[in-house]
């Protein structure tokens, strides 16, 4: 019989004897014996065997970053073999075209503090994303002795998310004051996934590009429709950059009146204009110094400010409103837009030189209708979020999921999230909704996207033309009024009616 089992049995018997005896002296002696046996057990635990059988990947290095040990789970989750990593300095294995990026060991060596970070390993195609949590171990003199790193794949983390939601509910019952922090963390988990999860090939390209450009200071231009997830991509770049611990200032260029935008961005000196702060004010550029400045809706920036922005990017310096002395800055720029900037250049509303200065690293985020294979996974993510928030159950039927896939999603992922929150609230705790409610919500009189995709470009245009004319005729009741609504000549509408065999408009009462 195993020594540990024998000792455990002896401890149980001694504990029973101690509980049954009334002799205090005997009880004290038994407790001393139990303490000695427990100490012996602790000294003889086979820790390596225990770690070898963990399902979490474990890596241990010395204080210089030399890898001393990895368990089987580490190899299984990263595909990194022992001979590729043992007795190597982790710093030599980290970086582009090597084993992985995003480690925590160097950070722990520098700070002597625990660290948490996303990582990517490149032993497979596509690369594997994971999460690292590293802890420093100090010797009796307070010197760094070992570093223990735990690795989990993102897939494992997503599988654990439902368990985490249950944990949050239990935590709120025990400590209600923690709910606000818990909600914040929960929302961040969902928002960081809402663009990146899925099987669409363009997402893999985005991940790969982020991995390469995040550590640099290159200017990035992120384009895509509203609600597609441009902000999430920008946040991923920042979180994986060398500036992640520095300021990240975000500004929506379309949300601030043009006459205020200049002073908000560049700041102003005292007495620059009436009503100004008498001490002057730092602008967002100065607040972002040494960090990152995210310029959302850059296509809506007034032309007169585009010149100053161009200089700020080129020279890394600005001048405050009412000032004369340039202020040197160190900023990484990330610009976002749902506008067609090339079209704006042709129309004379956006500077071509600024476009080329911003478009160093272009990233296009695809709309939801181009990644419908990801829709079910996205639905599950948002359903988990809002069923936990509203303490209820909900699920779409297969028919309803197919219905969602026929919708064109002009509002993209943001619209999907809003719809899921709405239907969960409308379900009134029943866990489902009627198909008619979902159809009405989606306004599925729109042409189904699968119908459009079954034809070529010109066929799709003809389908849209026919539907627009039919709807205009139905709502207006006459060809002339329909033509006016569509901003077309009546003769053009008449010709299209014949071309598409459209029925005459119903008489308006």
Describe this structure in words.
It is a single chain. The protein has 25 helices and 13 strands. It has a six-stranded antiparallel β-sheet with strand order 2-1-6-5-4-3. It has six domains: 3-45; 50-157, 2-Layer Sandwich (Beta-Lactamase), CATH 3.30.450; 161-193; 215-364, Rossmann fold; 369-449, Helicase, Ruva Protein, domain 3 (Orthogonal Bundle); 455-499. It is of the alpha/beta class and 509 residues long.
List the SSEs and their pairings:
Elements: H1 3-20, H2 24-43, H3 47-52, E1 57-62, E2 67-70, H4 72-78, H5 82-85, H6 90-93, E3 100-101, H7 105-111, E4 115-121, E5 128-138, E6 144-153, H8 154-159, H9 161-174, H10 179-193, H11 201-213, E7 220-223, H12 230-239, E8 248-252, H13 258-266, H14 284-287, E9 292-296, H15 303-315, E10 317-318, E11 327-328, E12 332-337, H16 341-347, H17 352-358, E13 361-364, H18 375-390, H19 398-405, H20 412-426, H21 435-442, H22 449-453, H23 457-476, H24 479-486, H25 490-499
Parallel strand pairs: 7-12, 7-13, 8-9, 9-12
Antiparallel strand pairs: 1-2, 1-6, 3-4, 4-5, 5-6, 10-11
Gyration radius, in Å: 31 Å
Net shape: extended
The low-confidence runs, each spanning 5 or more residues with pLDDT under 50, are 176-195, 445-451
How many domains, in number, for the residues? 6
What's the name of the CATH homologous superfamily of the largest domain?
A: P-loop containing nucleotide triphosphate hydrolases
Structural class of the helix and strand makeup?
alpha/beta
Which sequence of strands runs across the widest sheet?
Answer: 2-1-6-5-4-3
CATH topology of the largest domain: Rossmann fold
- How many helices? The count is 25
Please report the total strand number as a whole number. Answer: 13
Helix content: 40-55%
The rounded distance between the terminal residues' Cα atoms is 95 Å
